[in-house]
Batch of 3 targets.
Target 1
Amino acid sequence: MSLFKRTYWVVDPRTGERVRRKSENWSGKYRDDLGVWQRVTLCPDKTLAGLMLDELKRKTLRCHAGVADPFEAHRKRPLSEHVAAYRKHLEAKRNSADHVARTIQRIESVIDGCGWRRIADTKPAAVASWLADQREPMKDKDGNTVPGLSVASSNHYLTAIKGFARWLVKDRRSAETPLAHLSRLNGEDDIRRSRRSLSEAEFGRLLKAARDGKSVCGLTGAERELLYLVAAFTGLRARELSSLTESSFDLTANPPTMTVEAGYSKRRRRDTLPVHPLVAETLATLFAQRQRKRDSAPIALKFDADRKKSAHGQREAIPNPEPLWPGTWAKNRHGAEMMRHDLQAAGLPFEDERGDVFDFHSLRGQFITQLGRSGVSLVEAQKLARHCDPKLTANHYTHLSLHDLTSAVSRLAAPRTPHQEGETMKATGTDDSGSESLAPTVAPNLAQKPESRGEALTTAASSSDANCPAEHLPPVTRKPRKNRGSEHVREFVTASTRVPKVGVEPTHPLRIRDFESRASAIPPLRLGEGGTS
């Protein structure tokens, strides 16, 4: 390990000869933890350069001892390099370009606002103070008061910077995150935009106004009508709707389905959802019309050979790969502009007297609200909305009016009076009043303990006594029976034995003649004169 100054050759401009010169900075030479000689440039001061070289030697010794600091190199790097690496991490996870750009913009805004340059500069108090300043009203260049960030937007900035800090720990760039204990604020008391849903009549007026209207944002009136209908009956977002093509629908399946590819879904998964019969019928008619239009159009010869023919000699229907709603209306967020135009044509306010608006994203709330009005369970609504938390489905996307709540309360059952309960029990035969039915058990005396196997059993005296009331049948004693054929098969029961009533169906009396009629139906077993027949 030594200090030295690097030398280099230059041409002297006065004499034109090559001369050797030394660099201004001192350099050092040392062995790293792998035993390889390294040459590093230090500083112009020799004393300070010696201290820096000694520190490199101590770092090498710590690596040999296994106590080196793995985060030292990352702590020296500027935060801008870490943010660039985090951008690549988000893109590698196949996040949408809009999500990546928005997240990085929020992270850079927090870092610049707090004045951070290195990882060691990250302080939770600085983040809380900067967000509080951004929520305060500000003055623009014209002197007008501009509202600051809402609590919801402030929470989005906090979520972005905390996600970046957690990634630094997961990627082994930092030992800990000092922002872990920062929590989101309650945004219920600072809602800047509250959405509402439309009634069935109002939504019908909106569809008619869109159908009769002119082209807006590159979509015709018929296209906007179908767009609103599909959005209100599927709950898809604007970006998901803009990605749908004819091949996204399987209208011949039972039930009809539609598929949103993972690249366009917000949760980055391939979703297959059921399609409402009304939407399926409308789309089937549209696809048939578009297919007839394609068949009637002339086709270039070089493409005509690629089209297959069916068994009947007709060209096979090929789905149109073009989106159903083309253009940049979803990417440029022009859905609210379209909705505002059609609401005005339908005579409906964009913002009602309570401040609730109906923009394009409100169609998703319209879908979930209709599910709630139809009595769908919260779990089913959550699955159809593709939410990870049922609270989001119930609290933010379900807009039930006072009329809906009144209808729900009216479905509650009224309390029953004792008189009504008695009438119901009498109608079903479950009350204790009325005639008592007798149902003898098949072998009631088997529960008794006879003194011997040949002890007498009780039964009806004869078949003529079976016509008498069961309460007056005297017990009859007979000897143990022998196997004399099926005509002697009898069930010996005590007629006065009762069976308690169970269930809701009324019980019926069971008489001995019922058993006799069943026994007499069995012919006796007889042997032939010459032996067995």
Target 2
Amino acid sequence: MKNLEEMLKKQEYDRIWERYCGFLDINLNEFMVIQERLLMEQIELLSRCELGQKIMGKGVKPTTIKEFRDTVPLTTYEDYADILLNKNEKALPSKPLYWIKTTWKGGTHDIKLAPYSESMIEEHTKAFIASLILATSKKRGEFLLRENDKFLYGMAPLPYLTGLAPYGVENEISFEYLPSIKEAEHLSFEERNKVGFELAMSKGVDLFFGLSSILVKIGEDFVRGAKGSSKHNLKITNIKMLSKLIKVYIKRNIKKETILPKDLWNIKGILCAGTDTHTFKEKIEYYWGKRPIEIYGGTEIATVATETWGGSGLTFFPDVNFLEFIPEKDSMRSIRDKSYVPKTLLINEIKPKERYELVITKFRGGAFVRYRVGDVIECLSLDNEAYEINLPQIRFVDRISNVIDLAGFTRITKSTIEKALDISMLPINEWIACKQYEDKEPVLHIYMEMSDQEYKNSNVKAIVHEHLQVVDSDYKDIESLLGKDPLRITLLPIGAFNKHMQKNGSKIIKMNPSKDSIDELVKCS
């Protein structure tokens, strides 16, 4: 079978579109047929391995979707930790080629590992290429992706999921990565972005994939550099970019106008990932002249969904995971009441304007079965009528309410905050924490009541910020890499939390209470 590069050279664009983006042409019934077929294949693999027998039960082999959902329990990473963290390949449904790693915030170990089989990698690669094609596309069937495009790749290398894509893609198409993948593996995150940006200044850039917050930061730094006297910021050695350099020189030095990245580069496509991507899109378009396409995925789930056109939402891939959805109210109840087992819905049962916790079963020999990912999505609509997509359009909202994700850099848990406050030695009676937005950027807001009312807000903020950096290196990176201070502190008078409890009959929840609950707590002061 021809790969993508061979088809591009022969200008077989219709064939390329059908292979990678054909899922956009199916309807919901066809989507469910694919889901059921691949689920039955996965159940067969699971029934023959130790992990599958542990999760489903020995001798259990469901033959329908209903039987599968009625028989097999919902799971979390704790159900897999003993097998996966020990890399027990013999217990798995298929042999892994890679073990993908992520942090396990609030878990029993520091990391989580997820096995990726050859078939999973092939499907992950196909989904990633589909997203790249869509990032360079303005309408169905037309796209600008080509071999040897210069690719500013701003994501973490292996063993993290984002580092897997270049190795899968190399069998399909050649890109010129900035920096090269081999070089990037030996550079820190900050160094990779710096070197990549400098190479883009010299060679130009066609594609970008990375955290949306990083692309905004590069844009902000570019503007500051262009306004300053630093010569290297506008040093371009590629003769093809000479005309752009002249225009930039005129704009900055004669017209005295602000120089933006889009003045130097005509980027074909921008692919962004990470929580809060939706809040950064306008800034990215302002700096780079191209609205980004959002891709949604994760270590345990691979690439789950991609944005298409018109900003109407993301579309699920039908052949990566079996998809189930827990209504948000039931998800929140299960967090409060550990004995409560929520029911799930299928993709043909979700409703517009409703939010759901995502549950997946990995296809193609994956390890995870009815796995509670911990992500919340919102169904925006049941289709995209303007672009003739007859599948639900969704938005990745955030992590579940007991986790606060900041710009895709860190996931703050109750345990993280408790550790920081404990070592700070501050006389704190009660606290709550929530995620809020300022100027469309995420912040961590902690409301606290202290037994010593002499402390000033600014002093408390400095102390808490320092100790959050101590207990969470990812939180520290928000300041060191993005130059952002994400912490906000509100001090409440003694008795505020007690008044709130007396009024409502129960304590306010620690992590991400509702806005109404927070407003009511503040009024109690």
Target 3
Amino acid sequence: MAPSNFHRKHLSILLALLLFASYGSNTAVKAGAPVTSLFSFLSTQTADTKAYKQAYDLVVDQDWENALKAMQDFTVNFSSSSYVDDAEYWICYSRAKINHPAEEVFRCYDEFVKKHPRSSWTDNAKQEMIKLGNILAKTGSLSKSYEEYLKQMQQSQDDDIKLQAIYALADIGEEQALSTLLTIYEDTKSEKIQGSIIYMLADFKSESAMNKLIAIAESNASPSLRKKAIHALGDHRTPNATAAITRIIQSDAPVTLRKAALYSLEDSKAPKIIQIMEKIALAESEISLAKAATYSLGDMKTKQAEMALARILENAQNSSVKKAALYAIADQKGEAAVDILARTAQHNQDENVQKAAVYALGDTKSPKAFDALQNIMQTSKSIKVQKAALYAIADSRSPKAGPLLYKEAMGNPDKDVAKAALYAYADLNKMNAKGLLEIYQKTKHPEVKKAALYQIAEHSPKNEALQQLGQILKSEADPALRKSAVYAIGDIKDDAAVDILLFTVKNDQDSDVRKAAVRALGSIHSDKSQKALLEILKL
């Protein structure tokens, strides 16, 4: 429903009355004369205001039959009222709502616009005429006069009205619609209107529409309009459109436009488009564009696209493009993709590409990929690739991942690989303090033991973690490990840790461990920890 002009006018009246009241308060009045208050003045509205409000209330209630009659009566009884234009607008609007013939309602609005060109309702009426006239023109009635009306509306100063008229012209299939749109495009200075016309041109399959889109896409001064034209050309999917888009990709246009052109092709999945994408990925010096072409191939999800990705992986000179190919291949999810990734992880000469292939394998979540990752972890000579394989195994969420990581954390001869296995195991098995404690007890690497202490504090339930760490403090012979246990306890930030830390301050034989326990108490910031610190001062 259209907004209430009644309330807008009431606001103006109210402001006027406030000024009137202010003026009256400073003006002398005859002694004994009654002074009407502002509020009583408001309550004594003029007859036309009351009558219009009553009629407008019917509009608000959507009682269209009675609203129509009330507004018609109003125009007869109060023909000189400032609300006449409001009432006449609602007469047309109500007729539409109660399904009067569309031609009758159209003429009602047309008469309103001619009679009240400056009314605040005129734009609303014009928009309603466009909607109605579009229907009438399609049915064959009112066609000539309506087309003339649309052409007049193109000259409107209001962009929204002008756009509605242009859309309607294109929609009714008028023979001159295309030439009219092209003329308007050339004549207007509004980029908003030009952009809308570009999208409309995509619906015309004529050669002139195509040529205009190509010209805009290749040479317009506005990057925004060029991008819109590129998207419109992508919808055409004709040889001419594809050729134009390919020229843009291979041109020296800004990268954002070249990417837009590239993305506009990816939905076609045609063999020729796959060849174009592969060529860009392999030969383009702008790396971001080469990667975009690679990802677009991945989105196609066809056998030909997958084969193109395999060739890019093998032949691309840039490692970033190779990595993009790896992740695009991983998205294919098939066994062939797993085989390609596994070969790359094991045999590629670039360690960074090997790692990327390992992570991509993990992303496939395939049982076959898990076996490949396990093999890579056991046979790779690169510590970095082994660690990447451990993290990818954890990400796979395979039921076999936990036991494998547990075993490697306890027994791998390389401390860095063992530590990576511990972190992966802790992330996979959150709240499993028992397994972490067993790794702490059985590993031969002090670095893994320290890491296990912090993982116990971070991933285990507080009470269980404090119990285990407290026991380690009492039984561990290595002061460095006891010191790490103290810091791990302090990280838990719980009053239950205070007693353990205070006991350590009083009883541990190593001064560095005792000092660490004092610092850990200070990090807890609770009343209980403060009391413990005061007690220490008295020792």
